[in-house]
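Side project, low priority. Logging it here so it doesn't get lost.
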Amino acid sequence: MARKRIPGPPGFLLAAIDIILINLGFGIAWYLRYRLELFREVAASDFLPISSYFGIQAFLTVCLLVIYRLNGVYGRRRHQGWADEVAGLTSGAVVGVAAMIVAVFYLRPFGYSRLVFIYALAFIVLLLSLARIVDRAWRAHLRRKGIGLRRVLVVGEGSLGRLIMQNIVAQPELGYKIVGFVDDEPRPSLGRFEYLGTTADIPRLVVERQVDEVIIALPSASHQKISEILFACERLKVRFRIVPDFYELSLNQVDVAEINGIPLIGVREGALPSSGQVLKRIIDVVLAALLLILLAPVIVIIAIAIKLDSPGPIIVRQVRIGRWGKPFNFYKFRSMRDGADRELASLIHQNEANGPIFKIRNDPRRTRVGRWLRRFSLDEIPQLFNVLRGDMSLVGPRPPFPWEVAQYEDWHRRRLQVQPGITGLGQVSGRSDLPFDETALLDLWYIENWTLGLDLKILLRTLPAVISGHGAY
């Protein structure tokens, strides 16, 4: 079956769009200077019609296109971030405008307004950057729908293999789809990622699974095996990449520098440095307090509805495991009949979840009000008090039960390195529909790539996820 590919603009079409935007930016700059007279009035003797700048516009357009072409702007790089792309556009625009200014003022020192060139630089960068945002957003949307994905086979299920899988599952906008993984040691499937066989099966799998790229994530000691896989990939004319093995260090924490061409490998500060933890805590307290104030009427209505619906407490208290394995009292609105925890053993055979968690879609213990509370995650509101107490954060991995932690594999336990959260990357990426291993991969990616910007992005994605109710049961 033919695979759908993103009908993206080729390099020449991107260049054509840039030509339009460069000249539009220059036109806006002329209008701001001569029509709106921004920052400085224009004397009648100094007024120049837009036609006087046509030659300069043409020179600047050609100059920028040449610079961008030489810098590879029109060659699509899947791994390049938007910030890097904007940096390339900005540096190219600065060089182009500087060259234009030198040429113009050498030929005609006092004829043109310097403010026009300053405005032009700002608006050209702004318009080109916005065009890249739109292009990336459209491509990310299509990739989430399964269009234009590169089918990837991962070789190795150790720490390196899981690192690759957690980065791919956490960033669907990159456009990769893992068809499965192979390992010479028989392994259980990892969430949706299926164990497909040993490295000897790679040639067959490349053909059968229509693999576009093979990512080799084996320890450096397996150099003979890696060489054999590389030879097989070359023979099959399939692209391959190798994940470097830095002595079991997390690749997200590796810092590579050099002295006169000699690479030096070190370890960066953890993903949540102490300064970041303090700032995260301040934001947690402020937002949690503000949300409790704003949600006060909703809290009262929910409390009355729970009390009228069924006997039992309004808020239930559970023991959950927090950072570094420390237990704490976890609060939530009661969504099940009183004593539901004691019925768990009789329902365990109905568990629909994979891994050390318990989930069933139509849990018979739920109350009528509880179904609505869980549908829109309103039962989680009391956890704002856990945030104020310091047991939890607004964003982080969901806190597990002690019996769940007892079944964790060693790599699962890395989820406990940070404060648990009310929402997290797993909650905005599928919630209960995700297998546990896949949720764990998302949590590890969050821990290793934490920034305040990432927390904000997750918080903004939480509201649509709650409203949709997808994966909530």
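Brief comment: The radius of gyration is 28 Å.
Revisit when time allows.
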